[in-house]
Amino acid sequence: MTGTILVSGGAGYIGSHTVLALRESGRDVLVLDDLSEGHAAALLGAPLANGSMLDREFVRDVFRAHRIAAVFHFAARCYVGESVTDPGRYYRHNVVGTMNLLDAMVETGVKRFVLSSTCATYGEPERMPITEDLPQRPINPYGATKLIDEWLLRDYHRAHGLESVALRYFNAAGADPQARIGEDHEPETHLIPIVIQVAQARREHVTVFGNDYPTQDGTCIRDYVHVTDLADAHVRALLAMEKGSVGVRAYNLGNTAGTSVLEVIRTVEQVSGRRVKSVMGARRPGDPPRLVGSSARIQAELGWQPRFGDIKTIVETAWRWHERRPDGYGDRRPTTAHG
Ligand code: UFG
To answer: Both 30 and 151 in a single domain?
Structure first.
C-alpha cells in the first residue's frame, strides 16, 4: 500500500464525499477535523484525528504518528459574507491553518498536496467562461485567503519541492447518488438546499436575491458542479501526482453550463413535484451576475468528465438526500465561535 491520505476537513460537505471516493478506490484515509462544521456521521466509519488545524503541535503529532502519502486540504471557512465582516477568522483558518499543514509536511517529507480552491479567487473576470489563465483578483477576503494558499503552494514548491494541485471549484452541489451522505450546513445559505427546504415545507419561501441583473431572466447565473464529480477530480489529481511530477498545477471545476436562480427553482419544482414559493428581494452585496467556468484543462490533462453534469441530475441527488435525511445528520448544535 502507498501510505495514508490525510484529509483535512474530511467530515465536511466536499471533504466527506472525497473520503468516500478515496475509500471506494481502495485508499487508506485519515480525516483531520475538529467537527466544528463537519459531522462525525459523514465519515461513514473512516478514522478521525479530532483536533484543530490551528493547533500546530496536534497537526505535527498526526504527521509523526502516521505514514502520510499525500494531503487533501478541505478544512476552511467558506462564506463570502462572513469573510467580509470577520476577515481575521478567515486569514487565521484559511492561511495559518494551511501553513501548519504545509510545515508539518516539510518536516516529515510529505510531498503531495491537493488544495480546495475556488472560483472566488478570480473576482469579477472580464471573460466567460473563466479559464485558468485569467488574472486572479479576488474581491473578498474569502477569495483572498484561497489565493494566498495558492501562492504558498508555489513558494513551498520552489523552496521544498512540494508538488500540488489546486482545484478551483465553482458552485458545489448535489449529494452522494446513493444518499449515504449529503449537504448539511447550519445555518444553510446555499441556494439549492434552501429551495429544497421550501419544497419540503420546512421553509415558507425562498428570497431571490435580485432580478434586475443583466441576464436572460434577470437573476444570477452560477455554474453548479456535482460534489461526487468534485471528489473524482481529487482522486485523479492524486493519481497524476503518483504518476509523475506535476509541479504546481491549478484546474477549474465547473460544467461550463450556467443556471439562473429561477431555473434552479423550476428544476426543484420539477424534481419534487411540489410548488416552491419565491419572493423577489434585493441584490446580495458582492454577487457577480454570472460565474461560469471552463474545465477544458482538467478534461484534457486528467481525463475528468462530469458524470452528473446537468442541473436536473444534481438536484435529483440533492432531493433524494434531503428526503431521506430531512434533519441532515441530526447533530445540530448551537453555533459557537471557533477562533
Ligand atoms: N441566492 C438567492 N437566494 C438565496 C440564496 C442564494 O437568490 O436564498 C442566489 C445567490 O444570490 C447566488 C446564487 O443563488 O446568485 C447561488 O448562491 P449560493 O449562496 O448558493 O452560492 P454562491 O454563488 O454565493 O457561493 C459559492 C460558494 C462560495 C464561493 C462562491 C464564489 O458557496 O464558497 O460561490 O462566488 F466563494
So the answer is: yes
Same domain, 144 and 271: no
pLDDT at 285: 84
How far is it between the farthest Cα atoms of the chain?
57
Q: Please tell me if the CB atom of residue 290 comes closer than 6 angstroms to any atom of ligand 1.
A: no
Distance CA 88, CA 86 (A): 6
Distance 288 CA to ligand 1 centre (A): 10
**DSSP secondary structure letter of residue 40:** G
98-89-223-153 Cα dihedral, nearest 10 degrees = -20
Q: What percent of the chain has pLDDT over 90?
A: 93
Q: What pLDDT is recorded for position 337?
A: 40
Ligand 1: atom nearest CA of 140 is 36
Q: 18-49: per-residue pLDDT in tens?
A: 999 999 999 999 999 999 999 999 999 999 99
Please indicate, yes or no, whether residues 215 and 85 belong to a single structural domain of this protein.
no
pLDDT, tens digit, for every residue of 253-281? 999 889 999 999 999 999 999 999 999 99
Question: Where on the phi/psi map is residue 44: left (φ > 0), alpha (ψ -120 to 50), or beta?
Answer: left
Q: Is residue 114 part of a domain?
A: yes
Q: For residue 140, what are the domain limits?
A: 4-173+225-253
CA 175 to mean position of chain CA atoms: 12
Structural domains in the chain (count): 2
Give, to the nearest 10 degrees, the angle between helix 97-108 and helix 56-65: 30
**The C-alpha cell of 329 is what?**
445528520
- Report how far ligand 1's centroid is from the alpha carbon of 190 (Å): 6
Q: Is the Cβ–Cβ distance between 312 and 176 less than 8 Å?
A: no
Look at residue 28 and tell me if it is in a domain.
yes
Q: Could you tell me where the DSSP H helices lie in 72-190?
A: 80-85, 87-91, 97-108, 141-160
